[in-house]
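REQUEST ID: PR-0412
SUBMITTED BY: lab tech R.K.
PRIORITY: routine
TASK: structure prediction, single protein chain
INPUT:
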Amino acid sequence: MNTPFSRFSEYFIAVAKTGSLRKAADQLFISVSAVHRQIALAEEELGIMLFERLPNGLKLTLAGELLYADVIKWQKEFQQTRIRFDEIQGLTRGTIEFGLISALNDGFVMQSVQYMYENYPWINFNIRVADSEIVAKKVIEADLDFGLILNPKSHQHIEVLHFLELPLGFVMGKSHPLAQAEKIYFSDTLNDNHFIPAEPLIIHDYVQALYKHHQFIPVRKTESNDIRLMNTLIKANTGIGIFSYLDVLPYVERDEVVFKPISEKGLHPLTIALCVAPKRQISRVSQLMIKHMIEQMEALKSKVQQL
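STATUS: complete
OUTPUT:
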């Protein structure tokens, strides 16, 4: 539900819990200005300050604490109202079956799953994690309601409902000497240990093509087929890597690593596509999750544009 009040309540609670406009915005996948605008409009409309502006963040005022208690109560009561609405619409039962690539097992997809758990607790899930070819095949054969795959142009007989383009970039720890650089050149990384994605990771081909294009051979390198392992080591400032924004998104959101996008002619971004089989009748519950997932993808797209 995205009514003005439900949107405000979501923003208000996030700011109250985190004590920060920026952290709340990151948590909600929206801009800081959008959160600030909602809070400022509410304070103007109510004629009272909801937060104290302190040097180290925001703290609820007495009025803010009263509103916080009422909003939490309203959310619980409204969830029961939503359940009654859904019963009228025939949403008292159902199963959502979808597939995704392993790179998406953290981040916006899981947030959509959590959203469905919280708002439709009676719904069951059947989630399949596999490579794009397998997910696309299962979608086409109607074994899955929908799927999230990479580079949909290579797949025939599927309908793309929404897509998201994610850039490649240098990834490094927060204290890395290049973390504050506006632009990074390969020559800047000569003395670094390079973390290189190995096969069968999709990003492997992209990275190898980049090294070849720049005729760059790392003096020191660590190859692995586990993105999470490499991100953990990069976070510990043991080297630098070239990954897609998707690969590092959870770490960037937690402010653990720095991502510097690479922008050069001929370098194509990775495309994540939300797909269904053409003319497939999608269940009402799956439609609800698809709608929420598209909203999450749009929010992430806005973040990418700000990089």
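NOTES: The radius of gyration is 22 Å.
REVIEWED BY: pending
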